[in-house]
């Protein structure tokens, strides 16, 4: 007699309720999503509020001030109602340019060594040391500029250029060199990351064609990482443009500055002018008989600084998109 095996019963399988997951876990996920979204929107709202205040207060200052005072050749003296923009813009550009001239070769050179020449052990040791420079307080670097760089280097340089006139201790050149020191780790770190992202196959192909290490580095690796190096320089320029404490101490001009187009003299940058106004070092808490509070110019200078920084970032993004190479 033939026996028939019983038909196996089917398991009920998954239901829609099983796929929905644990209610407790879903509540946690929704709470986390709401928290993260709230943080994102809060940062956006703060940014919009800051820009709005700068625009409203900045244009309010323009409406109150005599426009001729914005190009007063005597310089930036808020207490006297003289708000020469050329003085602070030229000072900012000089400091940024000097910082980049000093920090670019040093930063890119350090990045090239760490990425292409250093052994793994040396890279692990030297890279944190380079990055430590980013953590140096700007006050310490300013003191180093005034007490070491000026008497050891700048005083002799200025004396050689103009022996009949004693060199001033507070100069835009000294401030630019100090800002360059702070910009080195930023440029070096971002450039080293860009160089490390270049595929090793490009290096091996270059060596296979008989190119030397230096030729491969200069003719293959550097062009391939051009977009990243450009981003490093833009970030370094933004860092130099936004430095406040160092240039306030090392460039002089705490109570205002005459217009100067040379970095061998004391001067003001946009950030140091804002710091002086905010701290009241120019005694601008009162109107000084000019019909309005000169502290309002702080918002206009802040708006100018925002426009400069935004322009640098937009320029950097455009260059990166144009020269970026995907591997």
Question: Beta-sheet strand percentage?
Answer: under 5%
- Structural class by SSE content: mainly alpha
Q: Strands across the major sheet, in which order?
A: 1-2
**Average residue-wise pLDDT:** 82
Rg over alpha carbons? 29 Å
The CATH architecture of the domain at 86-283 and 296-323 can be named as Orthogonal Bundle
- The rounded distance between the terminal residues' Cα atoms is 72 Å
The top level CATH class name of the domain at 86-283 and 296-323: Mainly Alpha
Which parts are unreliable, with pLDDT below 50 for 5 consecutive residues or more?
Answer: 283-289
Total strands: the figure is 2
Number of helices: 12
Largest sheet: 2 strands, antiparallel
CATH superfamily of the domain at 86-283 and 296-323: MetI-like
- Oligomeric composition of the shown chains: single chain
Order of helices and strands: HHEEHHHHHHHHHH
Molecular shape: flat
The CATH topology of the domain at 86-283 and 296-323 = MetI-like fold
Could you walk me through the main structural features you see in this protein, from its secondary elements to its overall organization?
Helix content is 68%, strand content 1%. The termini are far apart. With 327 residues, it is mostly helical. Helix 3 packs across helix 9, helix 7 runs antiparallel to helix 8 and helix 9 packs antiparallel against helix 12. About 2% of the residues have low confidence.
């Amino acid at each position: 007699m033939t026996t028939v095996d019983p038909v196996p019963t089917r398991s009920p399988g998954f239901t829609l309720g099983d796929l929905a997951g644990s209610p407790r876990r879903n509540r946690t996920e929704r709470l986390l999503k709401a928290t993260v979204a709230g943080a994102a929107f809060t940062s956006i709202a703060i940014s919009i509020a800051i820009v709005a205040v700068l625009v409203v207060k900045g244009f309010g200052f323009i409406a109150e001030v005599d426009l001729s005072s914005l190009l007063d050749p005597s310089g930036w003296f808020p207490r006297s109602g003289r708000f020469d923009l050329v003085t602070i813009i030229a000072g900012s550009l000089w400091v940024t340019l000097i910082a980049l001239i000093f920090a670019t070769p040093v930063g890119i050179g350090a990045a090239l060594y760490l990425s292409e020449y250093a052994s793994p052990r040396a890279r692990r040791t030297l890279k944190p040391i380079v990055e430590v420079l980013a953590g140096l307080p700007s006050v310490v670097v300013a003191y180093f500029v005034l007490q070491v760089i000026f008497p050891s280097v700048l005083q002799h340089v200025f004396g050689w250029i103009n022996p009949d006139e004693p060199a001033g201790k507070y100069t835009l050149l000294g401030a630019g060199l100090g800002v360059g020191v702070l910009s080195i780790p930023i440029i070096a770190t971002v450039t080293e990351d860009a160089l490390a992202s270049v595929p090793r196959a490009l290096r091996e192909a270059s060596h296979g064609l008989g190119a030397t290490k230096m030729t491969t580095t200069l003719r293959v690796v550097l062009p391939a990482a051009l977009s990243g190096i450009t981003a490093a320089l833009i970030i370094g320029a933004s860092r130099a443009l936004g430095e406040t404490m160092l240039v306030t101490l090392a460039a002089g001009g705490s109570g205002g500055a005459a217009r100067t187009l040379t970095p061998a003299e004391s001067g003001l940058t946009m950030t140091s002018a804002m710091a002086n106004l905010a701290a009241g070092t120019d005694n601008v808490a009162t109107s000084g008989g000019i019909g309005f509070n000169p502290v309002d110019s702080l918002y206009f200078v802040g708006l100018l600084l925002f426009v400069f920084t935004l322009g640098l970032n937009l320029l950097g993004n455009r260059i990166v998109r144009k020269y970026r190479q995907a591997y």
